[in-house]
Structures are given as C-alpha cells and as structure tokens.
Design a protein that fits this description.
It is found in: Cell membrane. InterPro entries: MFS, MFS_dom, MFS_trans_sf, Proton-linked_MCT. This protein has 393 residues and is mostly helical. The protein folds into 2 domains: 175 residues, MFS general substrate transporter like domains (Growth Hormone, Chain: A, Up-down Bundle), CATH 1.20.1250; 184 residues, Up-down Bundle (Growth Hormone, Chain: A). Helix content is 80%, strand content 0%. The chain contains 13 helices and no strands. The relative contact order is 0.15.
Length: 393
C-alpha cells in the first residue's frame, strides 16, 4: 500500500494515534487562555487589547511553526520534536506564571507555548495521517478531538481553582501537566525519522488542491471562529439571560468536540468530501437559525450546530489533505493548508465584531456570517471534480 492511497502502510496504528491524542490534549490548553487572561492582565497592568495580543501572537507562531515543520520533522523525527514541545510548552507556561512584566508573559505564552503548540499539533496530525485511508478519518477525529477536549476540561476545573489559589499557581500546575503529557506522548511515538525504512517517498504536492483545501479550511471555520469570539454578545443580543448565554457557549464548545469525534468516523464510511459538504451545510443552516432568533431554544440549537460544523471541518480537512497528497507529503501540504485556519482565526473575530454592530438594528444581517461557507462549498465541489478526474477509469 503506497502512501498516496493507503497512508503509511500496514501495522499497528493505535499507539501512534494515542500519542497524537495525548500530545493534542496538552497543546489544546492554549485555548483556555481566556480563563486567566483578565487576572493576568490586571496583575501586570495590561489592557484588554494587550491581553488579546498575547493569544493572537500564539496563534501566529502556531501557524508559522506548522508552515515550516515538514523539513524539520524529516531531519529530527516526531519523538524529538515532542520532547522539544514539552520543554518549550512547560517552560513557557512556567515563565508566564512568574512574569512581572507584559513582555515576559508574551514570551512565555505567545512565543514559547505558541511554538510548542505548532510542534505538538503538527506531529499529532502527522501521526494520524499515517493511518491507512479506511481508518484515517476516525484517527484524525480522535487526535483533533483531544485538542478541543483540553480547554473543555480546563473550563470545568479552572474557575474554582482560580478562586482558591490565584492565576499564577494554576498556570504553574498546567505547565507541569503540559510537560508531562507531551513527554508521555513522545514515549508513545515511534522512534526514528519519518519515512525511515519505508519504500514510499514524498509525491509532488498538487498545489491547486492545496489552494482549494485552504479555502475549505478558512471558509469552513470562519463562522465558528466568529461565534467563539462573540458568543456571549450574540446570545445577549437575542434576549438570553446570563445563565442561558452560558449554556449557549457550552453548547458551542460541546458541538465542537462532538463534531471532531464523530465526523471522522462518519467520513470513513461516506467519504471525506461528502462529509465536508454536510458539515458546511450544517454551519450555514445554524447561522440562519441564530440570526433572527429571540428565544433560548433556537439560539442553543444554532450554537450547537455551528460548533458541530466547526469541529467537523477541523477534523475532516487534515484527513482530506492526507487523502489527496499522501501521507509522505502530508506535513508540507498541511502546513500550507493550515494557514487558512490561521487567517480565519485572526480576521473572523474582527469581521464578526463589525457584523454584530451592523446587525444591531437588523438581526437578519448576521446571516452574512455564512458567506465564507459558500466559498468553502464551491472549493469542495471543485475538489470532488478533480478527485473524480484523477480516479482510474
């Protein structure tokens, strides 16, 4: 079985997938930053914008590391990169926990922990890409689902811990947990360099497919990223109480996790591109449901559906990339594809704030948030045609 059609050959695959899931469980704690952003900013005399810049820097560093990861991983191997991620992630969080100046916080979270995220996530999805094609969706869903599980777990335990101990001890504990989890992931990861002892070699990357997958990732995740950034505001504008708004945010997060875990399994049965089509349709319908809503039920349903769509796209795009370019070429191709998510992560919250302002008087204008999904759907159609044209007759 070649890397282009099978994805990494035969042999046990459960342990590498477990390694990827453990690595992403650690890395995903980055998205719990909002839990400590305000107390950290208050302690260091930072504005809210400065605290947001810490997270934005981490996202940019995350995407840049993924973009350049392929040649580094070929030279060093995944196990060594996870050891580096353990040192950078744990060290960066410890540095942040002891920070007395905003620049130190930026270095610890934005640079070191952001870089560790790129290393850990990049290795994790690469491990999933090596799984044979018939199981690749399930493997990828589990690995990227673990990334979403990290902040969910933090959201459950962090508030009482922060009240009891303060933000610095809590960040220090997370630092130790991140370092330990990434070290365990490294121990579970196969040793040696990628491709060592394998007959397959990287195939030429079909650049047009990479561009189309970039559009799918950017357009498919933009509405979800927009809602994640403004969930409480959107729920409040639709008349929800603070408690109901909290439930809506929980529905969004739960949908994200559930979409990641289930979409991959489903795509192994019906195909990656059809599953992407369903995910994009779900996202569009959910946006249309939320826009004119004035009661809890449709808002909760719309938030859940948006989370499901976002999580599904997040799981399906890596698997679809590996299907198209082959496991041997996955890291290089996916590094480029992932910048689509990075661009959406930086631009969608800004566009969402502008759109929410416009929709204050005309709520239906919020349906414009679904516009990126149209571009993503067109890209899926074009990918489907190219896949059919490339299939042997």
């Amino acid at each position: 079985m070649t890397s282009a059609d099978g994805g990494g050959g035969s042999g046990p695959w459960h342990r590498p997938v477990l390694a990827g899931a453990v690595a992403n469980l650690a890395a995903g704690t980055l998205f719990g930053w909002s839990l400590v952003a305000q107390p950290a900013a208050d302690a260091l005399g930072m504005s809210r914008a400065s605290a947001s810049a810490v997270f934005a820097t981490a996202i940019v560093v995350f995407a840049v590391v993924l973009l350049v990861l392929a040649p580094v991983q070929r030279r060093s191997g995944p196990r060594r990169l996870l050891h580096v991620a353990a040192a950078a992630g744990g060290g960066g969080l410890l540095l942040a926990a002891t920070a007395q100046h905003p620049v130190v916080l930026l270095l610890g979270i934005g640079i070191l922990f952001g870089g560790a995220n790129g290393l850990a996530y990049g290795v994790a999805v690469w491990l999933a890409a090596q799984v044979p094609g018939s199981r690749r969706g399930s493997a990828t869903g589990l690995v990227v689902g673990a990334y979403a599980a990290g902040p969910v777990l933090l959201g459950l335990v962090a508030p009482p811990a922060l009240d009891a101990f303060g933000w610095r001890p809590c960040v220090a504990v997370v630092a130790m947990a991140v370092a330990v989890l990434l070290t365990v992931a490294a121990a579970l990861t196969p040793g040696g360099r990628p491709g060592k002892g394998r007959p397959s070699r990287p195939h030429p990357v079909p650049h047009r497919d990479v561009v189309l997958l970039w559009i799918v990732f950017a357009g498919g995740t933009a509405p979800g990223l927009m809602l994640f950034a403004h969930a409480v505001t959107v729920a409040g504008d639709r008349g929800l109480s603070a408690r109901a708004a909290g439930l809506a945010v929980s529905a969004l997060a739960a949908g994200n996790l559930l979409g990641r875990l289930t979409a991959g399994v489903w795509s192994d049965r019906i195909g990656r591109l059809p599953a992407l089509g369903v995910a994009l349709t779900t996202g569009a319908v959910s946006t249309v449901v939320v826009a004119p809503a004035s009661s809890s039920a449709p808002v909760l349903a719309g938030f859940l559906g948006t989370g499901l769509a976002y999580g599904a796209v997040s799981a399906l795009v890596p698997a679809a990339t590996a299907d198209r370019v082959g496991a041997a070429s996955f890291s290089a191709a996916y590094g480029a594809v992932f910048t689509g998510w990075g661009c959406a992560g930086l631009l969608a919250p800004v566009a969402g704030g502008w759109l929410i302002g416009l929709s204050g008087r005309t709520p239906a204008l919020l349906t414009l948030a679904a516009a990126p999904l149209i571009a993503a759907a067109v890209a899926v159609v074009l990918l489907t045609r190219r896949a059919r044209a490339a299939a042997p007759s």
